[in-house]
Write a structure and sequence with these properties.
CATH topology of the largest domain: Glutaredoxin
Number of strands: 16
CATH class of the largest domain: Alpha Beta
Largest sheet: 8 strands, mixed
Radius of gyration: 24 Å
Distance between the termini: 55 Å
Structural class: alpha+beta
Strand order of the largest sheet: 1-10-9-4-5-6-2-3
CATH superfamily of the largest domain: Glutaredoxin
Order of helices and strands: EEEEHEHEHEEEEHEEHHHEEEE
Number of domains: 2
Shape: elongated
Length: about 290
């Protein structure tokens, strides 16, 4: 598939109020479009179409590799909280479907100069006082535009879904700061491993039988690493990380807890795939030493 352009870096605000930009989309294939929530023109149909795309993708094995991104062209009205309500109304998956706001200047410039989609005021048009494109844009893992599609009809959606599958299976080098280029490939895992059919039923069974479990399990964890003084850092081999290979590693990622010196206090033993394992002995309630 041809490359139709490259998007500029951008930093906006997503519906939860957190910063979100192009860097957060690296390594994902995504579908972008522009709307505004008080629009009575094309926007409702665009969102319906995108919701249907979400429904068709979320049960598939590639859902975690895909993002849906909706930009507002009316940020004065479409604050993060307004977009959150709009997203909830359309049952948007908050992890995979982002609604973005920011300054009008940034959003309009991104539409016109980044996506090459016109945007303009039209105050006489009551249904659509801001004119904008209704097209969906397919963007690859490194921020390149790969296709434009009619966001209002079923044929456009079918064409988009066809090309989405092609882009998902491309090998693309993703530039990571300070690490050069990393090539991401689709993992050769069977769908039954990615989305095991038995997982939900097993979860329900375990919850239903929780009262019959004799082992102590009514506890919570707290992150107190900084207070503890523990400086151990786990490291993994590249084959299990950024250059992942479909092999099995069953060592080097554990932690053992035991009273190794018989003082009645539990000590911690950390293991790692690269470097040295470390034993941290507990000296008191919140004090440990290597």
């Amino acid at each position: 598939m041809p490359v139709l352009g490259k998007l500029p870096e951008f930093q906006l605000i997503e519906q939860s109020g957190n910063a979100f930009g192009l860097k957060d989309l690296r390594g994902k294939v995504w579908i972008g479009d522009f709307i505004f929530t008080r629009c009575g023109g094309t926007c409702p149909m665009q969102t319906i179409q995108k919701s249907q795309i979400q429904d068709s993708l979320k049960e598939g094995p590639d859902w975690e590799d895909i993002k849906l991104v909706t930009f507002t062209v009316d940020p004065e009205n479409d604050t993060a909280s307004v977009l959150q309500k709009y997203a909830d109304t359309h049952s948007a998956d908050s992890n995979q479907w982002k609604f973005l706001t920011g300054s009008r200047e940034d959003l309009w410039s991104l539409s016109a100069n980044g996506f090459k989609l016109a945007v303009a005021e039209d105050s006489k048009n009551e249904k659509m006082p801001i004119l904008h494109s209704s097209r969906f844009v397919l963007v690859d893992k490194i921020g390149r535009i790969r296709g434009y599609y009619d966001g209002l009809d079923d044929k456009g959606r079918a064409d988009l879904m066809r090309d989405l599958d092609l882009i998902l299976n491309e090998d693309q080098a993703v530039s990571a700061p300070g690490k050069g280029s990393i090539t991401y490939k689709k993992f050769p895992y069977p769908e039954g491993i990615i989305n095991p059919s038995w997982l939900d039923s097993r979860k329900e069974l375990q919850i239903a039988s929780a009262d019959n479990v004799s082992a102590y399990h009514d506890f919570q964890f707290q992150d107190t690493v900084e207070e503890s003084g523990i400086t151990f850092s786990n490291r993994i081999v590249d084959d299990a990380g950024k250059y992942h290979k479909a092999v099995h590693y069953d060592h080097g990622n554990g932690i053992a807890v035991a009273d190794v010196d018989g003082d009645g206090l539990l000590d911690l033993y950390f293991t790692t795939q690269i470097g040295s394992n470390e034993l941290w002995k507990t000296l008191g309630a919140e004090s440990l030493k290597i």
